[in-house]
Amino acid sequence: MFESVFNAQNELQDSGYETSEIAATCSESGQTSSAVRVYSSDQDILGAYYTYIHPYFPVLPPPEPHQIVDNPEVGIRRAPDAFFSSRKVPDFEPSSPLSLAISATLALIPHPDDLDPFGTDSVHLRREQAQAFAHSAYESIEIESELVESTTQPAEALSSESHVVDRLPFHSQNPLENESIIALLLLSSYEYAQRGNIAKMRNRAGQALNSALNLGLHTRNDENSPYAEADKRVWWMTYITVCQGSILSNSPSPVLLYDPRFTTPSPTFSADPEAWPLFLQAQQVIVSATQFVIDLDVTMKSHSTTSAIWQRMLELEALIEPLVLKADTWALESSPPVSLDSTELKVSQALKGIARIKLNSARIKLHRYCAFQDIPVFSKKHCDLKSAAEPTITGESPSAPVCACSSTFHQIHSAVDLFNSPTSVSSPPTNVSCGLLPFSSHFSAKVCLRSSLNIARSFQSLPYPQPRRTNEVVDYFSIMKDNSKVPRTIPVFACCAMQSSYAMIMLCYKTRAMGFRGLGEGQTSPADRLLGQLQEGLGMVLGALKNYSIAYEALGGMRDRIGSRVCKKYGGKRNV
Question: Which residues are CB-contacts of 193 (< 8 A; sequence separation ≥ 6)?
């Protein structure tokens, strides 16, 4: 179909939190009927972690069957400045860094009894509760690393032993020393997805990395340790989060991707032992593709020799294309959907789904400039996509090499069917390459089409949480009949949705620029069919972002940008 439409033609880092400014307007008990989610014990918080967070961010050991429960209460507030807390156990408040950090994410999820979960009062109260937990989690981390001598006898502090935390662990199979690291990782995702603060996101991840290295988690090779699996997961999820920070900020990774000093074995997911290696490889690939985008920008601006960037694109395409083709064969869903259990099949499916999203996003990053010359379509900057207010590379560097893809919207004369033809680099593109890069605009646009649709379908396939109360066999969530109303969590890869949407929106413009219409009554042109596919793909991505934004406010910006650009068959605004 693609070929029947297109002719083959030439992010100040800081370390503190501020509490919500809306506390005074929404804090008084009795002023609102909104329901805020709370829990009455650490065990219930752990159960909610396994229900909502673990399938997408498996940083704790595999669950036991009795742990996969969700027992939320409608919280009450006993004073204007207090946390919402349990009616049944009014004296309980989460207190450890990890229980507080988990609670910050859980507080963002609407309670099933909230009759107006998207009303202003409900959103503000959830935001306030989550921020209070996040603030307390960070303070708790600082307190647990404090030296008494630093306050009482500073002259003795440098000679003192490090402070030993004396409390029960939050999870029996995870050592106490790992808890602050996990808390920082969860706060990192919270800063990005809820508060939209990439600088703080990277700061929290950097703190976690520093702590993990200080503990030697990157060199834990004792498989007989009772905490072996816990240490593996904490280390490698720290590595993943630090790499994600560099992707989101479009900056070089602070760690070597293949550092030989990182010898800790991979985590084990018994239902699918391949899941983790594939997930890790996908993260490394998208970091490499992000570095390619950085290097390409530097090359364009500095008018440097293009031979290195040309060769690098060939190398990356040769690496990524077979991985994308392999990912096409993965089974990402089960019918009926599987529930989380100790084998973690649900986690494995989610990891593979996320890996497929990242691999295809990496390929779009690689081909985006040659396909579309990075022409902006969004009015605000998202990830490494320029805003319409910024000058394009061509505008910044008038004498830079002109790419053949500049003709994308202007020199299309006929429709030749290439849609079902292979996109392998073993079959070199037949039309003229970009002056800077080795692939043609047409070939790269076709790659972006397939990758963007793969991303859309992969987002749709990601499993939803399945909250169940203790001793209940069926899901209790009052709106579970529509799974999309139960938010997935930890969407730190949401920039992949923007990459996919950018490609599909640009292809919509390209299709319309050809001026094709229906062929007559009862007939549909290739352009109409392609526009229908693109509209469907954008709808899938938009649906995923709508689901995430049930809990995470910062992703509402992405949702709204894409929502206002959903591909119509004809017409539409250019920038939003």
Answer: 490, 491, 492, 494, 548, 552, 554, 555
401 vs 485: CA distance, rounded Å: 48
**Tokens in use for 148?**
């008494």
Q: For residue 440, which phi and psi values (nearest 5 degrees)? A: -75, 160
* Strand-pair partners of 73: 38
Which is it for the CA torsion 210, 266, 463, 378, positive or negative?
positive
Residue 482: pLDDT band (50, 70, 90) is low
**CB 203: neighbour CB atoms within 10 A?**
20
Question: Minimum mean pLDDT among 243-257, 319-333, 399-413: which range?
Answer: 399-413
Of residues 3, 27, 122, 126, the one with CA closest to residue 78: 27
Q: Are 498 and 538 in contact (CB under 8 A)?
A: no
C-alpha torsion sign, points 483, 236, 454, 387: positive
At 311, list the tokens: 């060769």
How far apart (Å, rounded) are the C-alpha atoms in residues 270 and 343?
5
Query: For 50-68, what is the HEC assignment?
Result: HHHCCCCCCCCCCCCHHHC
Report yes or no: 102 and 24 within 8 Å, Cβ to Cβ. no
* 88-129 residue pLDDT tens: 999 999 999 999 999 999 999 999 999 999 999 999 999 999
Preceding amide of 337 cis, omega within 30: no
pLDDT digits (tens, 9 = 90+) for 47-72: 999 999 999 999 999 999 889 999 99
- pTM exceeds 0.90 for this model: no
- Please, are residues 562 and 542 in contact by the beta-carbon 8 Å criterion? yes
Residue 38, SS3 per DSSP: strand
